[in-house]
Amino acid sequence: LLQRPDDAELINLLGAALVERSRFAEAEARFREASELNSALADPRARLGWLLYERQGKAAEAKQLLEQALAIDPDHEKARYTLGLVHQREGALDSAALVFARLLERIPSAEAHRQLGLVYLQQGDLEQATKALREAERWWPYDHQVLVGLGQALA
Hints:
The protein has helices at residues 8-20, 24-37, 43-56, 59-72, 77-89, 93-106, 110-123, 126-139, 144-154. By secondary structure, it is mainly α.
């Protein structure tokens, strides 16, 4: 960073390291700086969106940043997953289900199967919830949320 102080990718990595050290205000500044230095990078926007929502509860700004990240890179897993979580937690369950389903089309993961199953459970679609949670269980057989969700769906 001393040799390349304007390298947006390095600044973004510094932001990620700062998050790991729970230095959230500094991380936010680094993610914003990286986004300004290189408008073609999706990752700083995705990480900033996550940070703003998870640490500050700023759903509107987080959604905007996550959607910007996905416009740059439609396959950005963290951006898509976090956007789904924001929709889910804000009660926009149809939007959350759509985001998680699109993520699974692009990048299958236990996390996305779990969250999609939990969204279906919240919507009362027990058949779809069971199907998604069974798939998550195949990946993560001991995940607490998966097992509790399956218990509720099968009860």
